[in-house]
Structure formats: structure tokens, C-alpha cells
């Protein structure tokens, strides 16, 4: 096996040197079901670019080919459809059959249930896809869209070489390249000569039967081709490939099957190339160069060993103007999490504070204009930032509902990338071997801290049945001891809620808990007569469906649920659209490890809660968000990568 990067079994997390007595590690996990949509201009290349990394990371893939060009992807996916001229023999590709699927079809219908979408195609369709993703489950979307790439010829250029290269940059693949050098800028001093020679080169271009050697240019994708292909599409739709899970495999095994997959692709290169030419009309000599590469050089590579006599490097550059919208529950903390990495990466920041909490986000010591703080309301100031054409990136923390709004504003304006840190319904799981007194104290802290107004609050306290009654008794006693009152007074544990709207909402949730038959152990009403204070409230005998229907309570209300065994609590904890954080309380390392791996959340705290550190990444699975804040992970939110390519003129020395 040569020519392949061997990285599939090396996807690794980090161990983070945070301050204090905590062991911190990160796990890199597959996202789940990945939907991928590819265009018709580079079929197998697009196929490989998309499925390689998705499978290497342990995801299950549903790939929709372009309606014009279904053949090669279906063939390598071994969907048994293609039997033209009886010439093709099917060999077992070696991936578990449900792990990747070639899907046929027109449009974007298939996407609504996938966990992640990767799309290559037109900007207009990209916008449509982003919006269907935002309106369904906020699945993250990566886009590789069209370009209008400049090709710049300076006055000192070697005109003959420049002509040849500009010709290639545009005419390659019948001009059907997203990166094609479609705007050739030529310096006036060499312009006339360039035009003359470009014309001569174009006249020399060989156009014709794409199977013939020496042909440079085949036909365009056209309607006749399309009709021919439609027959295959219809038979594909009739055969109805179904989606099953199965992408979760250990790195080693995944690596093995992927290498087998790669080998077979290489072995079948000729058949695949023929299919590409049948499909697309591209010159056979240029079709289907199977190439499998590692992910490592794409994440960290600054100098890239590309094939051929070219020097390739990447530059990590700031995105430009970063717009940031923060909520009111941790004004200064949110400010720091947002502004720090954006500035560290060289961006200019416009930060909108929450209307409730404009005061703390001051700034000093920076060059004028670098950090700009705007106070204002969401639907006016916030929306203006999200939809501004000159803002290049948006980072948002707040409610899921508003997250959906800002992502749509970003799409409708300039497609700025958006990172989201949204709400959660975090489980706090107390196992039967836990020290009950410690668990009670920690569960209390995980929920009541900050008046219960934490995105990662341990709002679903699951307690093993064997210690349930004791736990409830002690949790109630602890809540009764909680000191509520003037937040400026020493010793006060709990102040008022943020405003009357949230205060009323919390009291409504409490009433509905009582109406639905949960047992109100303590609290349940306002504290005192003035201000938005709420008595620390504990419910027992809470059923999952009581909490499922509602969004975050976001107040001092603890709900204690009973469980019998680990599998059950894992299933119940994961049966949520959210996946921000979880607490696990146990003395047993095996139980801790099982829960750590099984819970679909961005942070797992074992025998602790709310441990934050600048080095520890924070963010959500599922609808709790996209992207990570803090740690080295947050830097990629604020950087873009530029590939720089130049020819090497003296290969003898390399
Ligand atoms: P929100 O998400 O509406 O507000 C957060 C930020 O978004 C504020 O700066 C606000 O001005 C801005 N905003 C609001 N509407 C906007 C729009 N149309 N365009 C652009 N920006 C907009 O949250 P809200 O209404 O204060 O609280 C509602 C619920 O959200 C809470 O009860 C809680 O459940 C949840 N929440 C979650 C937070 C978290 O840390 N994940 C923080 C705050 C609230
Ligand atoms: Mg709101």
C-alpha cells in the first residue's frame, strides 16, 4: 500500500493541562448520519473528497450524486444497479453495507433527517440547503460553492507560459470547474501579445470523442446526456436503498475496511474512469484518479506535499469582521469567551451585548476600531449584525429559537459562517454506588448555580432507584437551606431572576409540573414580595415526558427522575434534541467510562460540575450548537485557510 495517508486509526483527542486538580481530556467522535450532496463536474473526485473524511471519522454517509452523473459513485458504493454491456463485475467493497450509501434523486429532500450536511454546488442551492438545515434540526452544513476566480498575469510574466496556464485554468474539464480561472486579468504592457497567443492556443485545442487519446475537451453536460442518465436514476429510485445505522466502529477496524475500500478503488480505476466518461463526457485520460489522503495534512499542514512539481502551502488568515451576540446570563464570561479567540486570530470584532446586561463589556488598550461593543435589542441591533453584508463571521450564544433566526439571517445576507452555543437539558446522573451526600451537594450546585440560568444546568437529575428516596430527602433539605436574597450581601447564594418575562415563565413551568402530577417537595412560589425572587424548588417523581415538551426552565427548579440501570438512563438521557453537557456521579471507573462514551454531549463532568478553563473546549452536540469555544478548538472558528500554489522550476534539487 503506497500513496495513502494512514490516519484513519489515528484520530485522537487531547489531554488538556487545565489548572487545578482535574483530569481533562477531549474525545473526537463521529457526528452521526452525514448527508452529502455532490455536483456533476468532478464525480469521483467529489465523491472521494466527501466520503473519505466522513467515513474516516466514523460517520454513516448518505451521498446524493448529481442527477446527471450517478454511475461512478453508485459503482464504488456497490449499489447493484449498473449492468451496462454486462462488462462490470461486482466485487465486495468491504464496508459494512449500511455505512455508506449512494442515493439517487433530485433536490434536497433527503437532507432533513441527517445530522450533518456537506454540499458542493451552486451558491443558490447552497443557500436553500442552509435554510432547510436551519429549519429542521440545525445540522451543521459545510459548503463548497462557486467561485469567479481571478487569474492575474503581471507585466514581468513569461507570456507563453502564462497563456498556457491561463488556458488550462479555464478550459480544463470543459470549463466546468468551481475554481476555474474565469477572469483573466492581464497587465496592459503584455495584453495584446497575450490575447493573440491565447486565441492561437484556443484554436489548437482538440475537441471530440472523449474516449480517444489526445482529446483535450469532450462535450458539455447536456440534456441528451441527462435523458440517458434518467433511466438509471429511475431504476435506482425503484430499488430504494434504505438507511440503517452502523458507522460506529473502532478506529483500527474502520481503518482496515477503509484500506480495503481504497485498494479496491485503485484496482477498479479503469472501470471507474470509463464510467466517468460515460457519465460526464470528460476525457477518459483525466477521469477518476483515485487518491486517498490523510486528514492530518489538511488540519495542520502549512507546507503540503502535493503530487507534481508544485509548492503548496496554506496560510491561516483571520476571517475579517467577526460579529458576536451574547446573552445576559454570564455577561463578562461570554464576552471573554467570544472576544479572546477572535482577536487572538487577528479579526476585528463587533460585539452585541444582551439588552438586559450591557454594562460589563467594556474595552480598553486596543487599537481604535478593533473591538466595538454595541448595546441594543435583539430584533434590531442583533438582527442587523447577523444580516450585515460586511460582517464575515457570526458567533452567537443564546436560545435555540434565536439561534435559528440568526443562522437564517446570515444565510440570506452573505452566507457568513455561524457558530452557535445554544441551550441544553443536561442530565446529572447519580449512580447507585455514589456517595449520596456529595452527590446531593453537587447536583444542587449544578442546577441552582446562577439562579438556574445556565445553558449547561443539570436540569435532569437522574438518581438510581436504590438511593432515590434518600437522595430526594436530602436534596429537599439542601434546597431549604439555600440562602436567597440581596445579591450584594455576603453569604447570599441566590439572587433574583433576570427579568419579569423569565420570572413568569419559570412560575408557569412550576404550575405545569404540579398539574402534570410531579411531586412538589419544596419551593414552587415567589420568594418575598418584591423583586423577581423564586424559592429554590425541588420536584420528585418527575416523568420524562413532563420535561420533554418544554424548553429549558432556566430557573431554580430541580427535577429528580428515577432510573433502574445504566442502559436505560443512557437511552433516556440521549433522547433529547440537546447535547450540551452531562454530570456523572459514581465511584466506579467502568461506569464512568461507559457513560462518558455513551452520552451524546459536548462536555461530561465526572464527580464534578461546571469546571471551566480557557483550555477546555465547550460546545454542544445536536441542537445545542455548532463549533467549540475555548481551547485550541475555538481558533478554527476565527481563521480561514488559504491554499497557495506555485510551480517548482528546478526539480533536480528537490
Ligand atoms: P435570546 O437568545 O433571545 O437572547 C440572546 C441574545 O440574542 C441577546 O443578545 C439578544 O438581544 C439577541 N437576540 C434576540 N433576538 C434576536 C434576533 N432576532 N436577531 C439577533 N439577535 C437576537 O434569549 P432570551 O430571550 O434572553 O432568553 C430566552 C431563553 O433562552 C431563556 O429562558 C433560556 O432558556 C435560553 N437562554 C440560553 C442561554 C444560553 O446560555 N445558552 C442564554 C440565554 C438564554
Ligand atoms: Mg429572546
TrEMBL record:
<feature type="domain" description="Aldehyde dehydrogenase">
    <location>
        <begin position="252"/>
        <end position="644"/>
    </location>
</feature>
<dbReference type="Pfam" id="PF00171">
    <property type="entry name" value="Aldedh"/>
</dbReference>
<comment type="similarity">
    <text>Belongs to the aldehyde dehydrogenase family.</text>
</comment>
<feature type="domain" description="Aldehyde dehydrogenase">
    <location>
        <begin position="8"/>
        <end position="249"/>
    </location>
</feature>
<dbReference type="InterPro" id="IPR016162">
    <property type="entry name" value="Ald_DH_N"/>
</dbReference>
<keyword id="KW-0560">Oxidoreductase</keyword>
<dbReference type="InterPro" id="IPR029510">
    <property type="entry name" value="Ald_DH_CS_GLU"/>
</dbReference>
<feature type="active site">
    <location>
        <position position="144"/>
    </location>
</feature>
<protein>
    <recommendedName>
        <fullName>Aldehyde dehydrogenase domain-containing protein</fullName>
    </recommendedName>
</protein>
<dbReference type="InterPro" id="IPR015590">
    <property type="entry name" value="Aldehyde_DH_dom"/>
</dbReference>
<dbReference type="InterPro" id="IPR016161">
    <property type="entry name" value="Ald_DH/histidinol_DH"/>
</dbReference>
<feature type="active site">
    <location>
        <position position="421"/>
    </location>
</feature>
<dbReference type="InterPro" id="IPR016163">
    <property type="entry name" value="Ald_DH_C"/>
</dbReference>
<dbReference type="InterPro" id="IPR016160">
    <property type="entry name" value="Ald_DH_CS_CYS"/>
</dbReference>
Amino acid at each position: 500500500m503506497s500513496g495513502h495517508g494512514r490516519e484513519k486509526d489515528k484520530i485522537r483527542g487531547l489531554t488538556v493541562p487545565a489548572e487545578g486538580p482535574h483530569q481533562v481530556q477531549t474525545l473526537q467522535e463521529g457526528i452521526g448520519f452525514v448527508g452529502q450532496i455532490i455536483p456533476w463536474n468532478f464525480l469521483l473526485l467529489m465523491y472521494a473528497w466527501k466520503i473519505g473524511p466522513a467515513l474516516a471519522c466514523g460517520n454513516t454517509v448518505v451521498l446524493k450524486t448529481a442527477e446527471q452523473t450517478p454511475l461512478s459513485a453508485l459503482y464504488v458504493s456497490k449499489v447493484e444497479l449498473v449492468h451496462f454491456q454486462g462488462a462490470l463485475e461486482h466485487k465486495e467493497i468491504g464496508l459494512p453495507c449500511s455505512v455508506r450509501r449512494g442515493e439517487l434523486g433530485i433536490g434536497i429532500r433527503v437532507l432533513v433527517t441527517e445530522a450533518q450536511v456537506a454540499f458542493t454546488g451552486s451558491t443558490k442551492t447552497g443557500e436553500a440547503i442552509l435554510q432547510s438545515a436551519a429549519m429542521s434540526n440545525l445540522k451543521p452544513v459545510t459548503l463548497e460553492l462557486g467561485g469567479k476566480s481571478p487569474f492575474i498575469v503581471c507585466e514581468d510574466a513569461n507570456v507563453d507560459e502564462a497563456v498556457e496556464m491561463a488556458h488550462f485554468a479555464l478550459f480544463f474539464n470543459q470549463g466546468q470547474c468551481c475554481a476555474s480561472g474565469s477572469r483573466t486579468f492581464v497587465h496592459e504592457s503584455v495584453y495584446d501579445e497575450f490575447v493573440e497567443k491565447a486565441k492561437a492556443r484556443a484554436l489548437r485545442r482538440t475537441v471530440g470523442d472523449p474516449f480517444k487519446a489526445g482529446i483535450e475537451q469532450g462535450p458539455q453536460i447536456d440534456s441528451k446526456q441527462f435523458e440517458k442518465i434518467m433511466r438509471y436514476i429511475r431504476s435506482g429510485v425503484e430499488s430504494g436503498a434504505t438507511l440503517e445505522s452502523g458507522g460506529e466502529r473502532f478506529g483500527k477496524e474502520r481503518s482496515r475496511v477503509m484500506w480495503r475500500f481504497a485498494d479496491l478503488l485503485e484496482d477498479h480505476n479503469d472501470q471507474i474512469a470509463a464510467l466517468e466518461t460515460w457519465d460526464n463526457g470528460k476525457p477518459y485520460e483525466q477521469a477518476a484518479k483515485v487518491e486517498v489522503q490523510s486528514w492530518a495534512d489538511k488540519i495542520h499542514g502549512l507546507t503540503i506535499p502535493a503530487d507534481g512539481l508544485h509548492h503548496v502551502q496554506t496560510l491561516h488568515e483571520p476571517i475579517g469582521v467577526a460579529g458576536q451576540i451574547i446573552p445576559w446570563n454570564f455577561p463578562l464570561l461570554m464576552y471573554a469567551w467570544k472576544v479572546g479567540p477572535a482577536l487572538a486570530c487577528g479579526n476585528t470584532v463587533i460585539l452585541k451585548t444582551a439588552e438586559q446586561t450591557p454594562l460589563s463589556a467594556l474595552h480598553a488598550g486596543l487599537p481604535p476600531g478593533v473591538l466595538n461593543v454595541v448595546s441594543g435589542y435583539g430584533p434590531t441591533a442583533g438582527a442587523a449584525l447577523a444580516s450585515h453584508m460586511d460582517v464575515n463571521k457570526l458567533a452567537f450564544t443564546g436560545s435555540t429559537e434565536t439561534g435559528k433566526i440568526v443562522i437564517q439571517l446570515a444565510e440570506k445576507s452573505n452566507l457568513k459562517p455561524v457558530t452557535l452555543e445554544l441551550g441544553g437539558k443536561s442530565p446529572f446522573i447519580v449512580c447507585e454506588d455514589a456517595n449520596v451526600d456529595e452527590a446531593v451537594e453537587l447536583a444542587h450546585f449544578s442546577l441552582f448555580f446562577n439562579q438556574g440560568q445556565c445553558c449547561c444546568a443539570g436540569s435532569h437529575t437522574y438518581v438510581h432507584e436504590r438511593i432515590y428516596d434518600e437522595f430526594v430527602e436530602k436534596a429537599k433539605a439542601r434546597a431549604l437551606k439555600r440562602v436567597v436574597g440581596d445579591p450584594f450581601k455576603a453569604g447570599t447564594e441566590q439572587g433574583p431572576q433576570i427579568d419579569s418575562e423569565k420570572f413568569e415563565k419559570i412560575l408557569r413551568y412550576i404550575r405545569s409540573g404540579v398539574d402534570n402530577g410531579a411531586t412538589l417537595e419544596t419551593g414552587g412560589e415567589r420568594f418575598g414580595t418584591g423583586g423577581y425572587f423564586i424559592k429554590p424548588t425541588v420536584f420528585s417523581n418527575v416523568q420524562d415526558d413532563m420535561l420533554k415538551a418544554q424548553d429549558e426552565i432556566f430557573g431554580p427548579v430541580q427535577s429528580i427522575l428515577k432510573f433502574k440501570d445504566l442502559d436505560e438512563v443512557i437511552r433516556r438521557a440521549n433522547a433529547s434534541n440537546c447535547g450540551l453537557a452531562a454530570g456523572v456521579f459514581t465511584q466506579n471507573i467502568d461506569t464512568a467510562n461507559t457513560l462518558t462514551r455513551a452520552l451524546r454531549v459536548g462536555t461530561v463532568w465526572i464527580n464534578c460540575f461546571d469546571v471551566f478553563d480557557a483550555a477546555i473546549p465547550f460546545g454542544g452536540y445536536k441542537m445545542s450548537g455548532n463549533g467549540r469555544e475555548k481551547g485550541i478548538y475555538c481558533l478554527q472558528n476565527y481563521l480561514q485557510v488559504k491554499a497557495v500554489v506555485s510551480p517548482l522550476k528546478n526539480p533536480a534539487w528537490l
